[in-house]
Amino acid sequence: MINIQNKKLVVPIFFSTDKNYLPYLSVAICSLIDKCSKYNTYNIYILSADVTNEDISIITKTIPNNVNIKLVNVKNEISKIKEKMALRDYFTESIYFRLFIPELFPNYDKVIYLDSDITLNADIAELMTVDLKDNLLGATLEPTVYTDKVLRYWAKETYDLDENHYFNSGVLIMNTKKLRPLNLKEHFCPWVNKYDSEAIAPDQNYLNCVCKNKVVYLNQAWNALPAGKMINDEELKLIHYNMFFKPWKYDNVMYENYFWKYAKLSPYYDEIVRRKSLVPADSKEKDLNARAKLNKTALMVANGEHTYKKDLKKQVKTIEQNIDIKAFLKSSPIFNW
Questions:
Q1: Structural domain contains residue 157
Q2: Rounded to two decimals, what is the model's pTM?
């Protein structure tokens, strides 16, 4: 990264959310604004199928002049996906919205995508200075995978990805210029229907397979997960409260002080506190059971007869028997971007 002090940048940032998650997104935006530089312009796009401009106006009442927030309705886009793929009841539609960015925003060659369950401890503009070269993404490794023996096995046997390459898709620098020709959203539905019928993070798996060997890996401080190794305050850049580690649900979550610092600045603070007071007593037990079920599902998928990795090997074997493998590898987008 280069020194961004006094350097004017236009920083396009994309979030995806639904109406229910808007209070937590507002906390993320409060932290982003607190850390932003007065020299840069920050264009924040909120991708949603049910959030309204009236909802957004609550967030935009007090923002600095160099920050712009715009709602992008992707209802039509998600309806097309619904026609081609059964959305699982344990995922919200919003997880798929990041796939629409390259096509919907041809004016940008490089953007930042962030999940809504984050807080920032640094200027997000720093990520715009990362040189992606010809790579498709900038991302961090996924601690949930590399710290768990079962999930390491799952990633390797299902997608042929090891713990040194499987990344978390909640914080991305997207080379949209290079991603655009790949038409991610069109190929996503048939891919998921074929390989992720028992999906664990389907969009993340898809991006990991499509972008394999075309990723710049960022320092983990840019995607610090409460389930991962503790990063000290001086090095910490971004906290991602992924999976079941939500400070708005439970006490004593790692990095919870950052969330509540910015929650108090959010127009939704009272609503966030109210919701936490209504969390059922057995909620944590249910989340722990869901986490255990995730590992069981991962083993079932990895040991199944039909996986992306197995199909890839069959395809390569067939190709080797019929054509010059070197010529194929040179021409095929699966192996050579």
A1: yes
A2: 0.89
